[in-house]
Design goal:
mainly alpha; 202 residues; 9 helices
Length: 202
């Protein structure tokens, strides 16, 4: 069977079956898992980290760690929930490391100020109306700016809930918190977002 035909057939398989094939020794099945989940994973990390390059690097590390730990996946949760948990942990570690490096650079003039990595992706209007396209772009820019003002913990739950569309149960499982704690975080995150977006509008 040709590889392209094999991959096409594998696209119809469940995550669990692809994991089974990967663990049997055919690692091309894991490539299908990467293609299946990379876009959403990258979107989550981009919101958490605010940098295209950092999101890409952390996503690659998350997939590598997932591959190395695949034999420990017990199937008690969905594969993407397990994968997002790995990626979110990597993102938190990256944020802590970035904060330490930032603080160190501010205390040492020799190293100067840290290079700003936060480059915004160019928004393309999907509507032919230039005014509507500009309005949509402006709303997206305001929302991104407001998200960057949230604490990492609040930005994370907003990203997982409102952007990724995961359920409260899935997110609580990922973050190892109760659903009550999660609902509280989301409530305060939404409240802060409303305040920030209101300030921007004035």
């Amino acid at each position: 069977m040709r590889h392209d035909q094999q991959d096409a057939d594998w696209n119809e398989l469940s995550d669990e079956k692809l994991i089974e094939i990967t663990l049997s020794g055919n690692t091309r099945a894991f490539d299908v898992l990467i293609r299946r989940h990379s876009r959403k994973l990258h979107a989550m990390l981009l919101q958490m980290l605010g940098s295209e390059a950092d999101a890409y690097d952390v996503a690659q590390e998350a997939f590598l760690r997932a591959f190395r730990s695949l034999r420990y996946f017990n199937g008690q949760s969905a594969f993407y929930t397990w994968l997002y948990t790995i990626a979110a942990n990597q993102a938190r570690n990256f944020i802590r490391k970035r904060k330490r490096e930032h603080a160190f650079s501010l205390d040492n003039d020799e190293f100067g100020t840290p290079l700003e990595k936060d480059t915004e992706l160019a928004d393309q209007a999907l509507d032919a109306d230039p005014a509507r396209g500009a309005h949509i772009t402006d709303i997206k820019a305001r929302l991104r700016a407001a998200l960057r003002e949230l604490s990492p913990a609040h930005r994370e739950v907003v990203t997982l809930c409102d952007i990724m569309g995961l359920s409260y149960q899935e997110i609580a499982e990922m973050l190892h918190v109760s659903e009550g704690t999660l609902r509280s975080r989301i409530f305060y995150a939404h409240k802060q977002l409303q305040s920030l977006l209101g300030d921007i509008d004035r």
